[in-house]
Design a protein that fits this description.
The structure holds 2 protein chains of 2 kinds. By secondary structure, chain A is α/β, with parallel strands linked by helices. Helix content of chain A is 42%, strand content 19%. The chains are: A alpha/beta, B alpha/beta.
Chain lengths: 331, 153
């Protein structure tokens, strides 16, 4: 079955065609990053306007590149949350128009489910499976016992990982988005400050990055006041080591406790090279998979894949009352 | 009215937030200011706890607005990214709405702020120590006095 995926939860307008939840026929992504750069982050109202501008073109390109017609589509899958409400609504409404016009079933997909299913585009997910979801808005560990069966084991109690990266970037005066720049600089820096590893030994699977963020900011502030030289690379490396230690250790413990067959990492921070390298060294007895770089950031192929499996499991489509929900829960 | 109080640690911050929460009612708007890591979200977590909200209250930076359902709703916003724009009218219905609105980086959306505003400016003076300036405008003038008295400073 050909599934048309639609994603517009943040600053990427994307439409894709995926066959049977595996084979990507097209994946068109229109990014607004250059527009939001000057504001140091995504501005909701501007994002909505840009989605409106690009959405028709992205739909048409996705169908054309797949070499299909709308009549060939068997299911329309759209991100209905969480995300920026104005942005979400544009994708949801565009998807509804196509579904209604061509009489195609419509299904709403959780954005994080999409990130998890990005892994399925390369190899089938095997269960039980542990998913570490790390992005600008999320940090959580989910256990999956089957397709579309998510049990949240723990989540961040304050800042998301990607957000903490961006804020550290802000303090160090690095260009937006800070995450990839911090990752890049940390490759040439040293872990000279050895920051605390918050909650690394806590018995639960929750995370906290706000205290670490404050610690880094305090040190930076104090050093600036004392006129000490700030070695940005070392700040980046020390921060990255602390963050990735916590993520890797907690993931490893959960993977063993639940005896999973595979560990998958999902979300924008899955593109972090430091995390990729350390996870491979930390978990050696269970396969650990990261999505291809192009499927780490927001895209509609992952939504199409997730929608395919959700529909296959439930057999129930959503009706045209489907709405966007900015804080939609995964389970 | 404007008062300065000293908060020594997290326990004191919790006491302060609980004192503010005594005044929670629909339409209550709290503005928070202070550098990254000064404790804006921490204050909000305690406020939510005092309002009977069970969900994990985490940072709203990414989505700008997070909505929590308690006895009355809590609208938690971070408007940092609106600095050069100054407003986002889609947030307006939550500011003058049926719940409590907490606006982190409130000076960035001056045009959207109501006349009745309780503003809380947090400054880090040590690892956990904070100096807080609490200011009440309009009908919140009297709130300041009560919060300071309850906090006991």
């Amino acid at each position: 079955m050909y599934v048309l995926g639609v994603e517009s939860s943040c600053d990427e307008t994307s439409v894709a065609v995926v066959k049977d939840g595996r084979e990507v026929l097209s994946n068109v992504v229109l990014s607004q990053i250059d527009i939001h750069k000057e504001y140091g982050g995504v501005v909701p109202e501007i994002a909505s306007r840009e989605h409106v501008k690009g959405v028709s073109m992205v739909f048409d390109q996705a169908i054309k590149q797949a070499g299909l017609r709308y009549e060939d589509i068997g299911l329309v899958a759209v991100t209905n949350g969480p995300g920026l409400i104005g942005s979400l609504l544009i994708g949801v409404n565009a998807a509804k128009v196509v579904a209604m016009n061509y009489g195609i079933p419509l299904i709403g997909v959780h954005h994080i489910a999409g990130h998890i299913y990005a892994n399925n585009l390369e190899r089938p997910i095997e269960f039980p499976c542990l998913a570490l979801v790390v992005s600008g808005g999320h940090t959580e560990l989910d256990l999956m016992n089957g397709h579309f069966d998510f049990v949240k084991l723990g989540e961040t109690q304050d800042d998301a990982v990607g957000e903490a990266y961006d804020k550290i970037g802000r303090v160090l005066d690095l260009p937006y988005p800070g995450g990839p720049v911090v990752d890049k600089l940390s490759a040439i820096g040293k872990d000279s400050y050895h920051f605390p590893r918050p909650m690394i030994d806590s018995p639960d699977y929750n995370f906290s990055f706000s205290g670490l963020k404050s610690h880094v900011i305090n040190l930076h502030h104090n050093m600036t006041q004392r006129n000490e030289p700030i070695i940005k690379e070392d700040f980046c490396r020390s921060f990255q080591e602390a963050v990735t230690d916590v993520l890797c250790q907690k993931t490893k413990r959960a993977a063993h406790e639940y005896a999973v067959k595979q560990v998958i990492v999902a979300g924008g921070v899955a593109a972090n090279r430091g995390l990729r390298a350390k996870m491979a060294l930390t978990i050696t007895d269970i396969p650990v998979y990261f999505p291809a770089m192009k499927y780490c950031t927001d895209n509609a192929a992952m939504i199409a894949a997730a929608g395919y499996f959700k529909f296959a499991k439930t057999g129930v489509a959503d009706d045209l009352f489907l709405n966007g929900d900015s804080r939609l829960a995964l389970n | 009215m404007e008062k300065n109080i000293f908060v020594a640690d997290l326990a004191a911050m919790k006491r302060f937030a609980f004192a503010v929460a005594r005044h929670a009612k629909p339409g209550f708007v709290i503005g928070l200011a202070g550098d990254l890591g000064s404790g804006k979200t921490t204050f909000t977590k305690y406020l939510a706890e005092a309002m009977g909200i069970q969900d994990v209250v985490n940072s709203p930076t990414f989505t700008i607005l997070k909505i929590y359902r308690g006895t009355i709703p809590l609208y938690h916003m971070d408007v940092y990214r609106l600095e050069t724009i100054g407003y986002d009218w889609s947030l307006e219905e939550y500011i003058d709405g049926d719940g409590v609105a907490v606006i982190e980086w409130y000076p960035y959306v001056g045009a959207m702020l109501p006349k009745n505003l309780l503003s809380i400016d947090i400054r880090a003076t040590g690892e956990t120590a904070r100096e807080i300036r609490i200011k009440g405008e309009g009908e919140y003038d009297k709130v300041v006095e009560d919060v300071v008295r309850r906090y006991g400073n």
